């Protein structure tokens, strides 16, 4: 039996993750409160006057700023405030929609960023969708067995948080999810259509507890499995609620 074993959201893209126990999905939309905000840098092409989806290279990412991977987040939905935690910085609670709070956040997070690389300069959002890496409003689905296979290839413990997935499934063979492209997944009360595999970047090399690059995840993927992919992107085609323990049917 395939079942949901974990649910995660990432309120600010590449700036922390938060475990949840249930989520209500809407057709054609990203997971609620997932990548609702993203941090722009000094060379971004994101236009705050006409906000629309742009590619991930326009935002601060763990790919070029490894220490960001060590952030954890806690969202208060009612007040739209986020508490970020990092082992090197302590805690900060702020509202990404408040200009003064954004300046406090930028001053707090900048010490994590190498001075000779892109530096954070603002926070972006787009009405009605999260700023996922994909141009379509995606939800990422991960396989526990595939994670175990990568961990075995590295011969060392590996935190699943490195993959920054939304929905984790157990009860599959490793890499079975790659056979689901263009198929539907009935998960709890929702239906998702699998669109594509997720090509991975150096963000996954960084430890989610401190942001230190300490695992050759990409080398393991390429060397042992002949690809650089982990997880799949899916799109919600029928809304509904998904909770921990829900059964999954591949249609």
UniProtKB/TrEMBL annotation:
InterPro entries membership: MoCF_Sase_C, MOCOS_middle, MOSC_domain, Pyrv_Knase-like_insert_dom_sf
SUPFAM superfamilies given in the database record: PK beta-barrel domain-like
GO MF terms, alphabetically ordered: catalytic activity; molybdenum ion binding; pyridoxal phosphate binding
Residue span, MOSC domain: 110-251
Pfam families reported for this sequence: MOSC, MOSC_N
Domain of life: Bacteria
Protein name, entry field: MOSC domain protein
The organism of origin for this protein: Pseudosulfitobacter pseudonitzschiae
Upper classification of the organism: Bacteria, Pseudomonadati, Pseudomonadota, Alphaproteobacteria, Rhodobacterales
